């Protein structure tokens, strides 16, 4: 049985290819069962995100062609159309790849944590579909454990490397306890959505999301338990905000100096952190001149991002060392499976001997023989029968000059070396 990881990602394939090979979540269980039914495949799991599609399989023969051909036909690609974009990781490389992916080392944003949740979802789906067995289950569980160790023992996810994360990190530096504060987010695009999620995870007390289209703001706050308003309502709510993060596509400023001055007065000069991520800027430059206003632009955040990236790159080196060790441990467990059938066969043979000798001992007891003598005879017979075949094989090995076999026997049976 061999492990194979076959797939493509943001490094090997453009978005036009990645979107064509993505799997719809509601179709994954049936798709998994179809993959696992292919010749040579005994276990299967699929990880499908916007940045990667990967098939992790246990196969009887390490041949990736079957998996690639299945993917090609499933998504109706022409012959060899997918080949230039695919990567193939067999056995140890597959284990290393899994651990690196789960730890965020293979992500578009180094160290991002979302991929671990996506891997857990992939495992859960495969379990429900009945397409994972002993090997893949062990690998997934081991992967989650190693990813947790990487997060705990390194700073791989501690430093901000995105604009949204940087904005929230800045807020946490200025307001140490976000659970006592309100944030006003202007816009409803991807950056604002990420900032809202980071704030929510950081325990923000209240979220207000303002957008030109109220429905878009409402859709976002519904999931994040916030409050939606239109851009025209901002002046009425600005004084409530301790943190303002803005990212719209407006060609003109959304917030002017006058509106901010009125808000500061209403707040009795409690400070406001304002982070303007937009280009062109959403907040007039003059706002930064006001007392009690801390205004940062996207350029200011870039310094935080660069420092965070350097920190994560250093942490990634530590993470790779952890993964090197853990790959070795897992491959040891995988190789130990090869011994299972031999151990089972050996124990079965001993069980037969034991039952035969027990039957003989019971008959002797039934005939009235002395129990002490019966027990002694049982012990001698068991010892002789169990030791007979190994002893005969070692004797033959000595006759044939098979020193290697005798050394192996000493190691297996934990015997002292006669020359020591």
Characterization of the model:
With 420 residues, the protein is an alpha/beta fold. It has three domains: 2-153, Beta Polymerase, domain 2 (2-Layer Sandwich), CATH 3.30.460; 163-303, Rossmann fold; 342-413, no CATH class. 55% of the residues lie in helices and 14% in strands. The chain has helices spanning 15-21, 28-36, 65-74, 91-102, 114-129, 134-153, 163-174, 190-201, 214-224, 234-237, 257-266, 298-336, 340-366, 371-399, 403-413, and strands at residues 2-9, 41-48, 52-59, 87-90, 182-186, 206-211, 227-230, 243-246, 272-276, 293-297. The strands form two sheets. It has a six-stranded parallel β-sheet. A four-stranded antiparallel β-sheet has the order 2-3-1-4. Helix 5 packs antiparallel against helix 6 (134-153), helix 7 (163-174) runs parallel beside helix 8 and helix 13 (340-366) runs antiparallel to helix 14 (371-399).
Approximate helicity band: 40-55%
Question: If classified by CATH, what would the architecture of the largest domain be?
Answer: 2-Layer Sandwich
Q: What profile does the largest beta sheet have? A: 6 strands, parallel
**For this structure, what is the CATH class of the largest domain?**
Alpha Beta
Choose one word for the global shape.
Answer: elongated
Gyration radius from CA atoms, angstroms? 32 Å
Proportion in β-strands: 5-15%
Q: Strands across the major sheet, in which order?
A: 7-6-5-8-9-10
Could you tell me the mean pLDDT? 91
């Amino acid at each position: 049985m061999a492990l194979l990881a076959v797939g493509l990602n943001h490094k090997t394939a453009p978005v036009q290819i990645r979107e064509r090979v993505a799997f719809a979540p509601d179709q994954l269980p049936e798709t998994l069962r179809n993959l696992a039914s292919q010749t040579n495949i005994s276990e299967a799991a699929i990880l499908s995100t916007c940045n990667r599609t990967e098939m992790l399989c246990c196969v009887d023969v390490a041949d990736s062609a079957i998996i690639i051909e299945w993917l090609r036909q499933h998504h109706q690609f022409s012959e060899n159309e997918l080949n230039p974009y695919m990567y193939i990781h067999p056995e140890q490389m597959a284990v290393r790849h899994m651990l690196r992916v789960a730890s965020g080392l293979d992500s578009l944003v180094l160290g991002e944590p979302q991929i671990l949740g996506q891997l857990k979802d992939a495992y859960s789906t495969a379990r429900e579909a009945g397409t994972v067995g002993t090997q893949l289950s062990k690998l997934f569980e081991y992967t989650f454990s190693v990813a947790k160790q990487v997060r705990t023992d390194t700073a791989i996810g501690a430093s901000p490397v995105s604009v949204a994360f940087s904005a929230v990190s800045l807020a946490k530096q200025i307001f140490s306890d976000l659970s006592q504060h309100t944030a006003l987010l202007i816009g409803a695009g991807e950056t604002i959505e990420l900032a809202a999620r980071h704030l929510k995870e950081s325990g923000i007390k209240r979220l207000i999301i303002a957008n030109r289209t109220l429905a878009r703001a409402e859709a976002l706050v519904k999931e994040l338990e916030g409050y939606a308003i239109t851009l025209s309502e901002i002046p009425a709510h600005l004084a409530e905000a301790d943190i303002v993060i803005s990212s719209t596509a407006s060609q003109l400023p959304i917030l002017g100096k006058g509106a901010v001055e009125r808000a500061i007065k209403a707040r009795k000069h409690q400070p406001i952190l304002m982070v303007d991520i937009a280009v062109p800027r959403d907040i007039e430059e003059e706002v930064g001149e006001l007392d009690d206003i801390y205004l940062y632009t996207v350029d200011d955040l870039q310094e935080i991002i660069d420092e965070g990236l350097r920190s994560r790159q250093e942490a990634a080196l530590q993470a790779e060392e952890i993964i090197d060790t853990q790959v070795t441990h897992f491959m040891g467990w995988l190789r130990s499976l090869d011994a299972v059938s031999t151990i089972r066969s050996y124990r079965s043979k001993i069980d037969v001997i034991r039952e035969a000798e027990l039957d003989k001992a019971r008959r002797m007891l039934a005939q009235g023989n002395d129990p002490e003598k019966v027990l002694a005879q049982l012990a001698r017979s068991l010892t002789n029968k169990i030791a007979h075949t190994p002893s005969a094989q070692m004797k033959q090995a000595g006759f044939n000059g098979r020193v290697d076999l005798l050394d192996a026997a000493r190691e297996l049976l934990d015997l002292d070396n006669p020359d020591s």
